């Protein structure tokens, strides 16, 4: 290995030289601009992209850590973004929120608060292993938070429509349950869990309910408003104690940007870290990150104000229409079926007749990165407007790949689902 290690650079290379080098390195990247990535990248339109990019670079040197003392600009934009979220998610006057670097951090922060709230209520201490009861489809960010905080995870089964079986989930709650979870929507199947039912369960059992609206939170309310069947999922349900929603997914804001909201201001205090143990004075942060770029905050503020009510409503219309087109096209291919009826633009389809991973393999040969699910075996795509121009080509490639698999002799693919 050591032979391949790069020597420390001598320096002095010009921007032109560096740029050329960097662009050459993209040669084997998946063509995301051409809609070949079924995850990782989100895009609405060129104007939104440019607003985000420009706002980001206006403030990329400013440090959001210093917003209270040095950068009131960042502080005011961050507070605005959090206000917008609390308005969108029907948060009560008692609510508050925090800006984070992503869904994983938002979830960590929420689970830290839930743990400390449970400890405060029950007197549980360090040695007591608490648990989170969540749908089988919930994001592994919860497992990561649990691994870091020494918590147990219990995954509840899904119903046939891929929403969590709330009765089964209820039976998994015990005295050590510090939180239950619902996704809005979940990543694997793109459907919103029955948040109303989970809210009732949370209230009955007096347990914390976190709604993970990371992927679609900033867009889903607009799907509801244009008359889609996308259900409500927010603080209007009294049992919802915290909610995470990523700006850098269907908020169409540059990475790294997410939000986490709490029904009670006191709950954010539980995740806040305020400490005065070293020689440089008090450190006080609401989230995990210390230094973080002001660019994320500025670009989120700018994109939200650029799109606003009108822009996200239009985005919802365009995306809903596009998703319908994909679903129709997929269902028209003999042997394929949808695994769920999508509440947003995350689709998952498979087959009862052949191994869908074989189709995914064929699609990979044609430059389409495979998005796969394992339970059940499915091809998965989370689509934004990048995927509209490529729709016809995707569907015709898919049809041909299905034909290849049907007429071939292979029965089992060696592919593995990777997120
Ligand atoms: C993406 C995602 C997360 C994690 O967010 P990151 O920004 O990738 O850390 C959590 N939950 C759901 C449902 C997601 O789709």
Structural notes for this entry:
It is a single chain. The longest helix is centred in the C-terminal third of the chain and has 38 residues, at 294-331. 39% of the residues lie in helices and 14% in strands. By secondary structure, it is α/β, with parallel strands linked by helices. A hairpin with a 4-residue loop joins strand 12 (372-373) and strand 13. The strands form three sheets. A seven-stranded mixed sheet has the order 1-7-6-5-4-2-3, with helices on both faces. A four-stranded antiparallel sheet has the order 10-11-13-12. The protein has helices at residues 15-25, 46-58, 72-88, 103-122, 141-149, 166-171, 195-205, 220-225, 265-271, 294-331, 356-365, 391-407, and strands at residues 96-100, 131-135, 152-156, 177-183, 208-212, 240-246, 258-262, 273-275, 283-285, 337-338, 346-350, 372-373, 378-382. It contains twelve helices and 13 strands. The protein binds pyridoxal-5'-phosphate (PLP). Pyridoxal-5'-phosphate (PLP) binds next to helix 4. Residues 102-104, 139, 141, 183, 186-187, 212, 214-215, 246, 258 line the site of pyridoxal-5'-phosphate (PLP).
What is the fold's blueprint, element by element?
Blueprint: H1 15-25, H2 46-58, H3 72-88, E1 96-100, H4 103-122, E2 131-135, H5 141-149, E3 152-156, H6 166-171, E4 177-183, H7 195-205, E5 208-212, H8 220-225, E6 240-246, E7 258-262, H9 265-271, E8 273-275, E9 283-285, H10 294-331, E10 337-338, E11 346-350, H11 356-365, E12 372-373, E13 378-382, H12 391-407
Parallel strand pairs: 2-3, 2-4, 4-5, 5-6
Antiparallel strand pairs: 1-7, 6-7, 8-9, 10-11, 11-13, 12-13
Helix pairs in contact: 2-10, 3-10, 4-5, 4-9, 10-12, 11-12
The protein binds pyridoxal-5'-phosphate.
């Amino acid at each position: 290995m050591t032979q391949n290690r790069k020597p420390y650079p001598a320096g002095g290379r010009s921007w032109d030289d560096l740029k050329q080098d960097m662009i050459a390195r993209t040669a084997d990247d998946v063509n995301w601009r051409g809609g070949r990535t079924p995850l990782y990248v989100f895009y609405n339109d060129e104007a939104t992209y440019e607003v985000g990019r420009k706002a980001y670079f206006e403030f990329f040197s400013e440090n959001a850590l210093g917003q209270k003392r040095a950068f009131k600009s960042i502080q005011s934009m961050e507070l605005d973004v959090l206000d917008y979220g609390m308005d969108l998610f029907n948060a009560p006057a008692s609510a508050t929120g925090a800006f984070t670097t992503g869904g994983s951090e938002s979830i960590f922060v929420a689970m830290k608060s839930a743990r400390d709230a449970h400890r405060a209520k029950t007197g549980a201490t360090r040695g007591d292993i608490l648990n989170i009861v969540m749908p089988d489809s919930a994001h592994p960010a919860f497992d990561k938070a649990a691994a870091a905080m020494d918590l147990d995870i219990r995954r509840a089964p899904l119903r046939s429509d891929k929403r969590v079986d709330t009765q089964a989930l209820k039976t998994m709650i015990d005295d050590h349950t510090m939180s239950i979870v619902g996704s809005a929507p979940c990543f694997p199947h793109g459907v919103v869990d029955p948040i109303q039912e989970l809210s009732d369960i949370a209230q009955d059992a007096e347990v914390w309910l976190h709604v993970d609206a990371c992927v679609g939170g900033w867009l889903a309310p607009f799907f509801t408003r244009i008359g889609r069947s996308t259900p409500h999922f927010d603080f209007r349900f009294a049992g919802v104690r915290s909610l995470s929603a990523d700006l850098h997914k269907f908020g169409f804001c540059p990475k790294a940007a997410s939000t986490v909201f709490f029904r009670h201001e006191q709950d954010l205090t539980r995740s806040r870290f305020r400490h005065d143990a070293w020689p440089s004075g008090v450190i006080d942060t609401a989230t995990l990150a210390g230094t973080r770029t002001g660019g994320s905050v500025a670009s989120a503020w700018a994109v939200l104000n650029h799109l606003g009510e009108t822009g996200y409503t239009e985005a919802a219309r365009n995306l809903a229409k596009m998703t319908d087109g994909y679903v129709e096209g997929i269902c028209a291919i003999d042997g394929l079926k949808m695994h769920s009826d999508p509440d947003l633009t995350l689709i998952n389809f498979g087959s009862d007749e052949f191994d869908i991973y074989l189709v995914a393999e064929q699609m990979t040969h044609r430059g389409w990165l495979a998005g796969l699910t394992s339970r059940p075996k499915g091809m998965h795509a989370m689509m934004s407007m990048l995927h509209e121009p490529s729709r016809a080509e995707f569907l015709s490639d898919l049809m041909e790949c299905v034909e290849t698999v049907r007429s071939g002799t292979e029965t089992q693919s060696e592919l593995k689902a990777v997120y």
